[in-house]
Specification:
Distance between the termini: 29 Å
Order of helices and strands: EEEHEEHEHEEEEHEHEHEEH
CATH class: Alpha Beta
Strand content: 25-35%
Number of strands: 14
Helix content: 10-25%
Oligomer: single chain
Structural class: alpha+beta
Shape: globular
Strand order of the largest sheet: 4-3-12-11-10-9
Radius of gyration: 19 Å
CATH topology: L-amino peptidase D-ALA esterase/amidase
């Protein structure tokens, strides 16, 4: 039985309206695909791949401006030197587990080359978070074929959340975490635009966990709801945040959006632990930059003094996306019989409504 999203519970984050699916796919042309691996033989797999296609299948030949921010760098997101240098995103984005960045990178490069989608050298974008509590990462269960399946599964519309794709084995604020998404509509004098967010949430301590400002993590103490890995789980945590918009933003403006993702994470209680890979990427599809780049291009730009609404949209959408990952995720038993308990919805509602 599927679990509810945050808004299904009557909990509304912020004041800006969401898009029709309240997902990163509300940004026109942005598609999401997943491949989920859950099995117990020949090894324990609780892992997968999530892909984001920024312009359907055209990002290789119609690049998008982008910007990157490392809030805390104990993690990996490949291709960021080129994003920082050029301001361009030239590939789809793949999210997976820490040990299989190389597998995903090679598969993504091969996919583009073999299908004639690109002839450029390959600075693909692959990001990771650690799922080794629930998944036997040393068995390397993900194959190139799984990455290709995720790419070919990519679609517009409503996006599955929780225990899916790259988020399958993730843990957030000491509850089962995973993939979450949300969106906001922004109206400024330069136009009406959509901002969408997708997170792979694998970070945070329970004591810091907040929902719409309510410190619910303090009330959901370990005596009432056990945390099986409190003593033995490694001191690691991470979150990948991808921000998308159809606004005509330039690379520096994209980087400004990526920075604001940290504030949405903080509203839920994320602090950027020493062992955390908190890596954020924002891209904007409102300008077109053909990969052939054989002539001058005319670009549009949202004025800087219109950016405040975009900042609010990112912060609200990140906060809600993390909470959607938590409400959607179900209890999971995995590697060495380790357990990650789902966030208790009834308790959450009681605490928020009585705050």
């Amino acid at each position: 039985m599927s679990r509810p999203r945050l808004r299904d519970l009557g909990i509304i984050i912020g004041h800006l309206p969401p898009g029709p699916d309240n997902a990163i796919t509300d940004v026109p042309g942005v598609w999401v695909g997943h491949k989920t691996l859950i099995y117990d033989e020949p090894s324990i797999a609780r892992t997968g791949v999530t892909v984001i296609l920024p312009r359907e299948v055209n990002i290789w030949k119609d690049n998008a401006f982008a910007g990157y921010h490392s809030f805390n760098g104990t993690g990996e997101m490949t291709g960021m030197h080129w994003v920082a240098e050029s301001g361009l995103l030239c590939y789809p984005i793949v999210l997976t587990n820490t040990h299989q960045v190389g597998t995903a990178h090679a598969a993504l490069v091969a996919y583009g080359q073999q299908r004639g989608l690109t002839t450029l050298s390959s600075l693909a974008v692959v990001a990771e978070t650690w799922d080794g509590w629930l998944n036997d990462m040393d068995a390397f269960p993900i194959t190139p074929e799984h990455v290709i399946e995720a790419l070919e599964n990519a679609r517009p519309g409503a996006t599955v959340e929780g225990n899916v794709g790259g988020g399958t084995g993730m843990i957030c604020h000491d509850f089962k975490g995973g993939i979450g998404t949300a969106s906001r509509l922004v109206t400024v004098p330069s136009g009406r635009f959509t901002v969408g967010v997708l997170v792979q949430a694998n970070h945070g301590d329970r004591r810091d966990f907040r929902v719409n400002g309510v410190p619910v993590g303090l009330a959901l103490d370990y005596a009432r709801i056990p945390n099986p890995y409190e003593e033995t789980r490694p001191d690691t945590s991470s979150i990948i945040i991808i921000v998308a918009t159809d606004a005509p933003l330039l690379p520096g403006q994209c980087r400004r959006l990526a920075k604001r993702a940290a504030l949405g994470m903080a509203r839920v209680g994320g602090i950027g632990h020493n062992g955390s890979g908190d890596l954020f990427l924002a891209f904007a599809t409102g300008n077109h930059f053909p990969a052939s780049h054989e002539s001058l291009h005319e670009l549009k730009m949202v004025p800087q003094h219109h950016m405040n609404e975009f900042f609010e949209a990112v912060i609200e959408a990140v906060e809600e996306a993390i909470l959607n990952a938590l409400t959607a995720a179900e209890t999971m038993v995995g590697y060495k019989n380790h357990v990650a308990n789902a966030l208790p919805i009834d308790e959450l509602l009681r605490l928020v409504k009585t705050a």
